[in-house]
Design goal:
Layout: H1 2-14, E1 23-26, H2 28-33, H3 36-73, H4 79-104, H5 109-136, E2 140-143, H6 160-171
Parallel strand pairs: 1-2
Helix pairs in contact: 3-4, 3-5, 5-6
């Protein structure tokens, strides 16, 4: 009897948090692909990335040519000439590595440009998601683009189009 009372008290104590929760999901990849400002920003970032990649590849090609010339002439060079040629190649490689870091590094030009172009859009999307959650009484909205391993989803819980509509309303 004492055990029964303890179990009953425990169940009553935890019954409040066990209420059914309202959950929905979105797919931010799908959502963002339908936002023209996001698509335009991605195209701008891709063009800038291609430009920087081209610059890096061009410089790497020059270094490769320099290295091939060094290899073919190495036998006829003095030790000092070989050392100078090797140092030049190494120096140029370091310059290219530094450019790659400047362009594509964590705090590089591309990261800053992506932050500049995409952050305002992401903030507006987050606002729309929050508004849809509050209006619909959702306790949780899951992003399928960020979650791996979803094996089943009920289409009735997909809020992607609702968020897109809310985003577009906020843009007016």
């Amino acid at each position: 009897m004492k055990r029964f009372v303890i179990v009953l008290v425990a169940l009553l104590a935890f019954a409040g948090p066990l209420r059914a929760q309202k959950i929905g999901y979105i797919n931010t990849d799908e959502l963002l692909s339908e936002i023209p400002a996001y698509v335009a920003a991605q195209e701008q970032l891709n063009a800038l990335s291609d430009k920087y990649k081209s610059t890096i590849e061009s410089e790497l090609g020059k270094i490769e040519t320099l290295y091939q010339n060094y290899q073919s002439q190495r036998g006829s060079m003095t030790a000092t000439q070989r050392q100078n040629a090797e140092n030049e190649i190494i120096s140029k490689e370091r310059v290219v590595q530094e450019k790659q870091k400047i362009y594509f590094g964590e705090d590089g030009i591309m990261a800053k440009k992506a932050e500049e172009l995409l952050s305002p859009i992401q903030a507006e999307v987050d606002k729309a998601i929050e508004e849809v959650a509050k209006l619909g009484g959702y306790d949780m909205i899951i992003d399928l683009a960020a979650v791996q391993g979803v094996v089943y989803k009920n289409e009735k819980l997909d809020l992607t189009q609702f968020v897109l509509v809310r985003y577009n309303e906020n843009q007016k």
